[in-house]
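Final report, closing paragraph on structural work. Over the funding period we assembled a curated collection of sequence-structure pairs, and we close with a single example.
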Amino acid sequence: MIIGVPKEIKNNENRVALTPAGVAELKKYQHTIYVQSTAGSGSGFTDGEYEKAGAQILASIEEVYAIADMIIKVKEPITREYNLIKEGQLIFTYFHFASSEELTHAMIARKAICLAYETVERKDRSLPLLIPMSEVAGRMAPQEGAKYLEKPLKGRGILLGGVPGVKPAHVLVLGGGVVGTQAAKIAAGLGAQVTIMDINLTRLRELSDFMPANVITQYSNEYNIREAIKTADLIIGAVLIPGAKAPHLITRDMLKEMKPGTVLVDVAVDQGGCIETCQPTTHENPTYIIDDVVHYCVANMPGAVPYTSTLALTNATLPYAVQLANKGWQKACADNEELRLGLNVVNGKVVYKGVADAWNLKLTNPTAILELVH
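Its predicted structure, as stored:
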């Protein structure tokens, strides 16, 4: 198979979808890999390293899209990439269709095969290609929140861990999954008083067993959230519904109940956000203020630590990329239920329920699509 790795062009996105080690692995199966020049530079990988591993370097993004059967990316295609995508071309990346109607319709129109990292799902319902970036984003959230709590950045002027004789900050984490767990761990490690909320009592029991003493668990409902935000200094949104829009747990009217300078970090923003007033921002302009509340809503948080993020992501994606390249997407998805669940849009048809529901589109059974292709 001919595999293309374009340079990411989303604002301040420095990750790359394939490392030189990944190139070498794919070359073992006689695949041809084209990498756009400087695609790996943001993550610390040179063109020379890719060439040594067996890749061929192309000068432009247009050349990569034109030649490849499968495009491996990190983030969803942006507007200038839409027309580069060929009918029947496999795009293997994060899509988050439920947060962008424009992207959804663009991929339907291009009749591409859109296999989304974020909906590849194991039998235990874990999301193996989302977990690594959730871990990075979860660990970054308190770090970024702590920074924007500083007064020069319009925060409350509170040190997350406090000092002897002065209370630490109160951190509220909404969601006890991978992101929320990592966020709570880091915030607690910095000395904050942490409350983590979830609607799954079994998960709350698990969290209670291994979290440090400065983390308390609480059942998530509107009343408890409204009470907690009154004293929270930093609120981290960490709610995920695979492939679907995140629910709004913090609504616009709730901002009035928060203290001026409170910081909101919505890690779920690339799935529509669990904070109603959050809109995607970039590392270049990461925050804005509504009702004296600082909103940090960067949609690609892990892009700020690309070396760590790229290695963590490619460790997870490469085995699936090898399957897709070796078998072709149809057979790979037919053989592997995890990959089949990653299919979101195929040949102009929406095959993932969360995407269809988000934009009121017709849902086509992916099994029927695979049978038709065969």
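The chain has 14 helices and 15 strands. Residues 131-299 form a domain with the Rossmann fold fold (CATH 3.40.50.720). We thank the funder for supporting this effort.
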